[in-house]
# Entry
Amino acid sequence: MDLKQIRTFVAVYEGGSINSAADRLRVAQPSLSLQVKNLEESVGVALFERHARGVRPTAAGERFYEDCRRILGNVESAAQNMREFATGVSGALDVGLIPTITKGALAELLPPFAEDLPNVDIRVVEAFSGTLTDWVMSGELDFAVVTEPPRHDGLEMRVLSSEPLAMISGRDTGRRHLEPVSLSELPPIKLVMPSRQHSLRTMVERYIKVGNIKIERVIEIDGLFGTLEFIRNSDFSGIFPVTTIVRDLHKGEYIVNPLEDLQTTLEYFLVHQTQRPLSPAARELVIRLEAALHKTSDAWAKVVAKSADVAA
# Structure
């Protein structure tokens, strides 16, 4: 048994079929089938059950997968440690972020990060959570920060931060800036929402269906900056995590209202492959992202508390 066979086994296990693993590893399907057969002969037990749509791991295969994940993670970690020892913090860093993070936290932390780590080549990709998670799984991204990632074998995830939602409106709505509002008590509102592939859309629609939000009209826009520009120049509103707007609260371009009856928080998850431990540059960027997100939540809490004191 060698590392090539272990990587083959993991690819087949996670892909659910020989064809999927062959595409992932860029090798011919017959060659991959032979590797799996040889591996099973080497360990003396069947690792997969074959069926019409692919393969299914046996109980032995389930147990073997956990061992293989640890082996590959340890091998990559050892190689990474040697690269770090030889070169210091350098190399390429491919990161995926949802639009809320790129507008909020990234704008603040990326300039000092780039200055502090001049030998790191950074590429930031913005997309929806599902797309970013797929790109992490395919190896196109070192890590991503997303909301509600799908569970997937071979994917490590943890919550970086959570934060409340707020209503952002154009000034033509006539609401008072930073005054808490109860959605269920508002007259019918004009609402901008993202498409249904966005997790935020699901959260808002849940409240609409039970009658907690009365709707006059809905416009669907995919694209955070376009949505905010439309809101700024109209009498429409949108519901967003506070990271979206907390740094713009005092510019006077929007009316922002805390939500009294929408206590749902949005969680941000860090996702990366189990077999690819985060590099020193990636770990440093994650640390700064996490700190920036917590800073945003703290800043919003202070704003809400101050507004409550003024109202009292």
